[in-house]
Design goal:
alpha+beta; 8 strands; transmembrane
Length: about 350
């Protein structure tokens, strides 16, 4: 138990601050749509999903000389489309296809750089892997913390803040806070690590579906598309996607990433939790003809379970009550991590400090 306590303390002293920043940034990102509705024009507009409106917006946006690579369409909670170009360039557009705001650096928009930190540590794929590993370290903290808390469980007190600014009170609060918030932390840390680390995600789903089967089911069709038509009939394309999945919401429109690629339209069917869905219809860019489709509800069980990671992690299901739950999880992690760093560096040894003897007069 002594070795476990030392491992928990020393690792927390070095990693705690990063976990705290992950928790705080995650708590803020849960409310990103509310922030945009309060600060961006047209962000509070009602969502429109009729074919004519979607086609008119796509036609206007893709007719630009510097057309985007993809469009993430407006949702019920956010009335703006998000346009992605090469590099960090992006923009918000209203549902008629008019650009509301554009930027060329992630640092230009607070919600964008906050997401870049939370998901990539400002370092692309490498940062994503590091973030996943930190998530696994966080899971280790939760497990070891519960083991260390168990012998002291009779002293449990539910407090949101330490009773006093003394080290003993902070340690007691850290231990009890970690105990009652542990289920939320396990959920957020596990889903976060699974999204960032492919091998971890596959290991979790292997009892349900083999990784090879999941890979094959999620692979894009091996069909070569033609050259992108200059005046593509987007009403025809979007209408065909809606006809393939009549119960679905059209979520993203992506142009071919390279020569021979296909136009991809993602849709979210009613039972899907993932905000942008995993149901897909592919089209030949030369004539807008549908060439393949994939139904997310027909994916193997392991893949369907994996598709729940992001909506659970980012509180994209469950409405406001669940967003508040995940806010508590993020703020709790922020408090646990920051107080762990303070108490560790205030006394790395963890030994009681000797009181100086009073001077004799």
């Amino acid at each position: 138990m002594k070795t476990l306590r030392l491992l928990h303390r020393w690792t927390g002293g070095f990693v705690g601050l990063l976990l705290a920043l992950f928790g705080l940034s995650g708590a803020l990102l849960v409310h990103k749509d509310a922030f945009l509705r309060a600060t961006m024009p047209h962000a509070a507009d009602a969502q429109r999903q009729d074919t004519a409106t979607l086609a008119a917006a796509a036609t206007r946006i893709f007719a630009s000389d510097e057309r985007p690579r993809s469009i993430v369409l407006a949702t019920e909670r956010l009335g703006l489309h998000k346009l992605s170009y090469k590099g960090e360039r992006a923009a918000y557009a209203d549902q008629d296809g008019n650009i509301v705001q554009s930027w060329t650096s992630n640092w230009s928009r607070p919600e964008v750089w906050l997401f870049d930190f939370h998901h990539h540590l400002f370092n692309g794929d490498a940062g994503e892997v590091v973030g996943g590993v930190i998530g696994l370290v966080g899971l280790g903290f939760v497990v070891t913390g519960l083991i260390l808390w168990w012998p002291t469980r009779r002293m449990f007190r539910f407090r949101l803040w330490p009773q006093a600014a003394r080290r003993a009170a902070i340690v007691h609060h850290h231990r009890d806070l970690g105990a009652w918030i542990a289920p939320l932390l396990i959920l957020s840390l596990t889903t976060g690590a699974a999204m960032n680390l492919k091998w971890f995600s596959q290991a979790l789903r292997a009892p349900f579906t083999s990784p090879a089967v999941m890979e094959a089911a999620s692979a894009p069709p091996k069909i070569v598309g033609g050259k992108l038509a200059k005046n593509l009939d987007w009403a025809k394309v979007i209408g065909a996607a809606q006809a393939r999945f009549p119960d679905a919401e059209v979520r993203t429109i992506a142009l071919p990433a390279k020569a021979g690629g296909l136009i991809q339209i993602r849709l979210r069917r009613e039972p899907e939790w993932l905000p942008n869905g995993r149901s897909v219809v592919w089209f030949d860019p030369a004539d807008g003809r549908p060439v393949a489709s994939r139904d997310a509800l027909a994916l193997p069980l392991g893949a369907r379970i994996a598709n729940a990671d992001y909506p659970l992690h980012a509180a994209k299901v469950g409405g406001l009550p669940y967003r508040l739950v995940m806010t508590v999880s993020g703020l709790g992690l922020a408090l646990l991590g920051s107080l762990a760093v303070v108490t560790f560096w205030g006394n790395p040894s963890g030994l009681p400090r000797r009181r100086r003897p009073a001077r004799q007069r």
